[in-house]
Amino acid sequence: MHKRAIKHWVIPTILAASTVVKFAIGLASYSGQGTPPMYGDYEAQRHWLELMVHLPLRQWYTYDLPYWGLDYPPLTAYVSWICGIFAHWINPAWVALDKSRGIETPDSKVFMRTTVVLLDALIYVPALLMFVSSWQGTRSKRTQEMSLLTLILQPALLLVDFGHFQYNSVMLGFTLLAINFFATGQDLLGAFFFVLSLGFKQMALYYAPAIGSYLLAKCLFLGPTDGGRLFIRLAAVTATTFILLFLPWLPPFAPVSGILQPISRIFPFARGLFEDKVANFWCASNVVFKWKTWASRGFLVKLSTGLTALGFLPGVVGLIRSGAAMSKTKFEASSVKADEKETPPFLPLLPYALLTSSMSFFLFSFQVHEKTILLPLLPITLLLSGAPIGSSVYSWGVLVNNVAVFSMWPLLKRDGLGVQYVALLLLWNRLIGHNPFRRPQSFIQYLSMAVYAAALLLHALELVIPPPSRYPDIFPVLNVLICTPVFFLIWLWSIKCGVEVGWALGGLGGQAAERRSSEDAGVAATTTGGSFRQSGGRTVSMGYAQTSKMEMRTTGIRGSSVFSEGS
Amino acid sequence: MINESAGAPAPIAAGTLRKSSSVASLRSSTSSIIVPEPWFRYDILPSEWDVLWLSTALKLLLFPSYRSTDFEVHRNWLAITHSLPISKWYYDTTSEWTLDYPPFFAYLEKLLSIPASLIDPMIVDLNNLNYDGWSVIGYQRTTVILTELVLGIVLLKFVRGSVEPPIQRIISASIFLHPGFLIVDHIYFQYNGFMYGILLWSILMARNGNKLASGILFAVLLNFKHIYMYLAPAYFVYLLRSFCLSPAGEVQIKNFLSLANAVIAVFVVSLGPFALLGQIPQLLSRLFPFTRGLNHAYWAPNFWALVTAADRVLLKYARLTGADIIINESGVASSSRGLVGDTVFAVLPNVKPIHTFVITIAFQLIWLLKLWRNPTYKSFLTALTLSGWTSFLFGWHVHEKAVLLILIPLSLLAAERHAYFRTFVLASVAGVFSLFPLLFTPTEFVIEVIYSVIWIGAVYTPLSRRVYEYPKSMSYVIMDALEKLYLAGFPFLLIFVTTFPLLQGGVTAHPDISASAAICISSEAFSCPESENWSAQSSREVSALQFLPLMVTSIYCAFGLVWSFLRLGFIYLHEETTYQGQLSEIK
After folding, report:
1. Transmembrane stretches, by residue range (chain B) (predicted)?
2. How far apart are CA A9 and CA A15, in angstroms?
3. Total Cβ atoms within 10 A of residue B27
4. pLDDT of residue A49
5. What is the pLDDT of residue A278?
6. Do A16 and B453 touch (CB under 8 A)?
7. Could you tell me the end-to-end alpha-carbon distance of chain B, in angstroms, rounded to an integer?
8. What total of structural domains would you count in chain A?
9. Tell me, what's the ipTM?
10. A397 contacts in B (CB within 8 Å)?
11. Cα diameter, chain A
């Protein structure tokens, strides 16, 4: 009786404890606190509340653009509007038009911090709860709780949203909801939520290649009739949601050119290749190769777009080929009518494709911020959350998470979040059972050791030595040089895993079909896995295919660690 | 004994320490199997490391939280002890926050001021009043976390030597993670964790039979902070009866002399320098300022809060009915504002320090007589708790923070049996709730409330299972129901306390005024000139309503604390002999 009672309380306790942590981070200073005249991201977000409450819709994207003009898609504006109405109701001074610029009263800060916690609780937290019950529905309760804890206290997101001040968890939450609905076979709802994600922050485009190709693969998988129908429905849902979001800027509510207002604000190609110091390909290679002097901006835009596309291509191809290949085998194997609600067997590829795609954007695309690393972190943390300690997914996931936090150090330091940086890294690593000082046993663990050593050394140097006057940016640049290789490796790793998982699922075209017929032990094993899912239910275990394949290679016992880990 | 039980209870322990640590220990304990050989040996379990690291992470996050004037008090003491010769420590009045702790604490501040001066000389600049640079916040907060490790180590030692380590581990963790410490030390700012560490160390020595060490440690503690004098009677009787006298009543002259000499030596080390300088009267006048009122700014939830409340009610009654009661007009204005100053009753006879003193002594004598007749460890622990409790309830000008003096020793008794456990729950809920008004800034308030709820849940669930007893008779059932009803009132009290100011704010629309008054309430006693000015400006009705949530909190918590005090006293006097529990088994 009591034992059961305790079990019931674990998840509420996790939620309550994480709320304490979120509020506690919010005690710290935010970006741009006390730095007139422009302040920082906090002021930008607060300023939008002020704009939305006081200005007619038509002026949202045009009012006094140099002072934090709105440059996010309409859903952000609508959410700011709602928050602004509450703020205006509680204390009009917080959002007085123009007069409230740079307001830093304690109560207005509390209000703004609370809006982040509430929106997070309304969107991201439910998305996480749904994730553990849908993607990890077949796993033990303990694994699910552990996984929730891993995700909910992910340090990078906590630091940026509740410390630095942004609403990334809303965008990520919508995307996660979309992925969850894909896992339960409700593709239309999934598409709807993904459009909301895009409509909240254009950064969600980083996921678009993976999500688009997943849906395309699903259509191919279902075959010409059902797939065609799904395709049309998806197109209709997507288009309608977009139109609804942008309605005020579309005819008949605005002239045809009206849509250009938000669009030109949302995609600012007029800015440079990269801002500040960000751990991506451009900034890192800029150390030895000055891109800006060597090539025109137009060329660089094209080059970066090309490289990005090349970067996410493997993920896209993997998904579509799986979809196409499996559709054929499915028709050969059975005459059962394809069900739209059924989860396709290539679903486990989706997180890897999301990782490949978003990491490729982060590394190669135009105008990347250091905070954008949060996007690749979502899929890798989802993978990590269900992985057993010591597995390669776990090691990579932890490494990338820690390095991502490290890569934001210059930003966090500027925001006055140094203590929070230390505290959250300590908290999260301890909670997930990661000990960075354990004796390494595999390549990735040796790599982690080296990276941590370099990071610690850099912190130590920064603490004791002032930067030389010739190179005032020496520490951020060194930071970039440590982080970029790790991000580059995780991008390669995600491609490799995508290929491996695809292969394990038997989805790589004609050769794979032949291999299946030749009674290869491993593939037979995973095919049983696939049919188990098809018969058993719509839920899929995250990381299942990956781990089972690893196990086959080493011990020949399938998936033992996955199922025994939590019990 | 300690070494024997150190390694053994690992598997049980990992399972029983729930909530904050079990989730983490799941992974860390499985991972520890993978490790071939640790680099060095220590007998601290993964779950215990979890408690330490996770709580430290939270405490780090609280660095930028609200700080009371106590923060500046302690910074000023760093400056005094660093920049002035010892002869001027107790005379300096550069800041209004003069040194009013005993010499050992001053020595500690001197010690802490050395690294502080290296980190940032501005910290120890005597004239740099109200310095709130990042360096001083980081440094002072860090010293609180580090000195609190004393508490952590002592609590670990409690587990190691205990009869039932899994239960003691829960109790130890509950003390280390006590919301009281989080609120008063890590947000409000004080060094209670460190000093309760010494107190528990002394209690641990008593448990382990080393009574000389226990006495010395308590003497040391007294010279850190004199509030622990509340507990001194129990120590005196216990050590006299069980250490200086044999069970038959013969004087153990050797024991007596060694204890007396040791305690005198401690006081010589502490007070000696000041005695040589002839400053003892000045020192005492700093330590015991008898110029304060009966109630502290925000009434501590004790007996006098109930009496004051009764006086208010009688006054209202007299006004309404026109009853023939003599009303003291100066008492009408007094204390309804909840401000510092002499409390004068309007209807009831006024209370003088001597009254509180007599009542306190009378109650103490009851417990001490019992302790004299039954000087076991468990009896000592109970008498100690009751001794502190009596002083808290009936003492003159008691601070609400002193409630820790009850809650911490009481925690050690929590798992004895259901009667103790229920007392512990009632007192803890009421006591912790009574600390909530210390923090009035919204974020900190949310943090303390959620944290406390998690804490009580995490302590209640495993312990209640351990001690559950079937009610013996109908009267027990009724009592049980009433107590549960009382506990169920706290959520409603919380709702009232949080929503009332919002409703008030809408009516009065004086946000600045209420803010300044609130700051004054929550700061250390002393004086609040600005709010006196303010209360002169605004009408009494408004101010009375302003402090209504504080008064209601104080009264409601006082009921719980008085009731659980009587409860423990009854258990101590009546059931002690019949019970054979975990603590009774220890020789």
Report:
1. 187-204, 216-236, 256-277, 354-373, 379-398, 419-439, 445-464, 485-503, 547-566
2. 10
3. 24
4. 94
5. 83
6. yes
7. 13
8. 1
9. 0.87
10. none
11. 75
